[in-house]
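Can't paste images in this forum, so I'm doing it all in text. The chain is below; anyone willing to post the predicted structure tokens underneath?
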Amino acid sequence: MLEIMKSIHNFCVKHNIRYNMLFGTLLGAVRHKGFIPWDNDIDIGIPRPDYDRLISLLNAGEKIGDHYYHLHYTTDENYFYQITRICDDRTSVEPKYIRKKIKKMGVWVDIFPIDGIPDRTPTGILRRTRLFINKNLQNADIYAVRGKKGITNKFKLVSVKIFPNAKKRNYLIDKILRATPFESAKAVGDMEDRHEIVFPQTQNDYSAAILMPFEDAEFYAPKNWEKFLKHVYGDYMQLPPEDKRKTHPTGCKWL
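Text version of the structure:
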């Protein structure tokens, strides 16, 4: 993942694509100068205009690295995420928590589109509501695993049968997200992730991002990183209890 991220950084610098480390990746950079010891993913955010340009470049055949390829809903009919993943083709990942098997998925770095956050006007509230409904349906498409116990999973399985148009939903969600343009929004953030950790940043956090050490490299971080981490994690320098130090169950292997 670190080598993938180095290549992403170089690609973004070459093509003048803005990005920032997000969530646990940013926390790891600040608290551990790299990966959180029990974590096993990397998350970055790219403003929607730059994100769309990145996807266009990759779909046109541009390469981030010799062994790297991208996963996007336009490249795999079973990939129901809004985010893009840059994967290593020398590895294989088969997470058991995903309902439909993706044709090819290697160890990855997640790239989140950063969009304008709708205001609290009737139009903005309608966009938030439509996004909330469609994101929950999208997550049912991803995580409704047959044989898994629990009322929540049963509800997801029923939802998948009633609302089966998963592929169209990807395009619909992107349309909703783009309705509040990044360039003119007062605040921006990761709106696609079910509003779980929507923290309002500004365009300046991406236009004037700062380099921060991460392992043996440096990657970009939001200018207001301390405010971001306090909002998301509270006392972010305090280590969580050992039973909360969870690793994502990815089932990855070398090919």
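The chain has a mean pLDDT of 91. Helices lie at 2-14, 23-31, 48-59, 122-143, 151-162, 166-178, 204-207, 225-233.
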